[in-house]
Amino acid sequence: MVAKSGAKATGASPDSDLDPLTGVETRQGFLKRLEARLQSEAAPRFALLLIGIDDFRAFNDMHGHAEGDIILQRVARRLRDASPRDAVIARIGSDEFSVLLPSISDPTLVRHVSAAILSMLSAPHEHAGRRHHVLASIGACVMPAAGDLSSDVLAAASLALARAKHDGGRTIRFFKPQMRSDVTTRLSLVQALHEAYAQRQFELLYQPQVDLRDGRVLGAEALLRWRHPTRGLLLPASFIDALAASSIASDVGMWLLQTACAQARAWSLAFGLQAPRVAINLFAAQLAESRLLTEVRHVLRALELAPGSLEIEITETIALQQGDEVSDQLQALRRDGVTLTCDDFGTGYASLSFLKSFPVDRLKIDQSFIRNVTQDPVDAAIVRSVINVGDSLRIGVVAEGVETPEQRDFLLANGCHEAQGYLYGRPMPAERLTEHLRQQAGS
What we know:
47% of the residues lie in helices and 20% in strands. It has helices spanning 27-40, 56-63, 65-82, 107-122, 150-166, 178-198, 240-244, 249-271, 284-287, 292-303, 316-322, 324-336, 351-357, 367-370, 377-393, 405-413, 430-442; strands at residues 47-53, 88-91, 96-101, 125-127, 130-132, 136-142, 172-174, 202-211, 217-228, 232-234, 277-281, 310-315, 339-345, 362-365, 396-400, 418-420. Helix 8 (249-271) packs parallel to helix 10 (292-303) and helix 10 (292-303) packs parallel to helix 12. Strands 8-9-11-12-13-14-15-16 form an 8-stranded mixed beta barrel, surrounded by 5 helices. A 5-stranded mixed sheet has the order 2-3-1-6-7, sandwiched between helices. It is elongated. The protein is an alpha/beta fold. It has 2 domains: 27-176, 2-Layer Sandwich (Alpha-Beta Plaits), CATH 3.30.70.270; 189-442, TIM Barrel.
């Protein structure tokens, strides 16, 4: 099924147009082959894979096009190694490749080939003393399914690729006709998000993070909400993915940073040493920009806010996608005194190796492990392990999603002393948390 390492799997004839950088077919040559395939049989059966490198534009911006070209060449070689011998491989965009599987139309076999491709592409790339993690997504179209023209088939695979990236990346999604209407809905949502930003419809709520031993508020996570003019207050699940992928993600992220830091400054003036630190989550688009360090420092200076009042939460997956330069910027902020937290710890694919290459101040146990921690022995073991990792590395551990006294007691018994969740407060306006802090200070 899969070609052995080093095998040539482009399927290109000697007179084919080849991409000068990667040696695989060009978009134009590939479309001619695809068109010929569609016209050769009354009901052609084959599969088309569209492979997109996640966040490649950000990689180019950060490391330069020369480094990006090396990655593209290596991706092309790995596609040859992971694809069947009769596959036709082409580079059809700056960061997209296509693989035509002429002898495969069974979805199970298509998924098998796709898994082999994703596995091979995800192996780290070493170059000039740096390690790069190249993550990819795959959209698949199994024919006959999408139309009679090569452009129809490619558009269908493109929709499937967009869905794969929307679902978190590093996965495969198959084209379904429903995806066409989903795209229309998504475009409408993105337009509405642009209007929401322009009309200042976004707002922040704050969920307290408390000391489990006495209930004191130690910090607060700033959480984005959308005050929709007709649908009311919308939770992030209904819009955050579209926002993160939009062109205004960095702008909204900067507004979130400034607003949260301004609130932290107000609490600092009101409550002094008892003021809570404020935690924020950054969009991947912000992390990909080289000005992140400068912008955070500027906000802190402008507001005269101590760096220790700010906490930045970042998932290991997003951090690994960005590369060493993002790590350098975040570590510089950490040296300034900003708290750096690994969010959703344990849900990624390289948690322990991540901690070795990306030091943090705190680990945040994902709520999916807390939900059944008192009933599920596996979840209990995972939570204990994370707490032990924190103890061993001398970094803090905070649990999210604590909703019951039993969960609190389990965490306390196992050495976790900080948490957030509905047991201690839902996300609330700053004014309500301020009143709670005032009562806490008075007592």
